[in-house]
């Protein structure tokens, strides 16, 4: 079975590292990259091109077929709602809350005052006694 066969069947690939027991889902559109670079597309041969991001091993990586996550069809109403709420969320994120800003500024100032280098206590003022001559 090749990467292209899996893509045609509507499946993805799970790359699993047996060294650190970690897996990632890989989109099978990666077969296009393999075709451009003239790499072998069989699952066993293609596994040699993958490296684990956790432990860096490439010799312990194996590829297995995996199902693609379900994506329900999007209607026109769903698309309009997604655009509307996306724009609305972006506008809300742009606005700043003055209360939160003031609280953040006060916290920063208190931390700066707390972390400021301690000054040595000033010595008490010298008491000068003035004697008048009799």
Largest sheet: 3 strands, antiparallel
The H-and-E topology, N to C, reads as HEEHHEHH
Instruction: Count helical runs.
Output: 5
- What is the count of β-strands? 3
Strand-residue proportion: 5-15%
- Gross morphology: elongated
Which regions are unreliable across 5 or more consecutive residues at pLDDT < 50? none
CA distance, first residue to last residue? 118 Å
Share of helix, binned? 25-40%
CA radius of gyration is 33 Å
Label the structural class. Answer: alpha+beta
pLDDT averaged residue by residue: 82
Order of adjacent strands in the largest pleated sheet:
2-1-3
Features:
single chain, about 130 residues, alpha+beta, elongated
What does this structure look like?
With 134 residues, the chain is of the alpha+beta class. It has a domain at 3-67. Helix content is 40%, strand content 14%. The protein has five helices and three strands, in the order αββααβαα. The chain has a three-stranded antiparallel beta sheet. A hairpin with a 4-residue loop joins strand 1 (11-17) and strand 2 (22-26). The radius of gyration is 33 Å and the shape is elongated.
How are the secondary structure elements laid out?
Blueprint: H1 3-8, E1 11-17, E2 22-26, H2 31-36, H3 43-46, E3 61-67, H4 76-94, H5 98-115
Antiparallel strand pairs: 1-2, 1-3
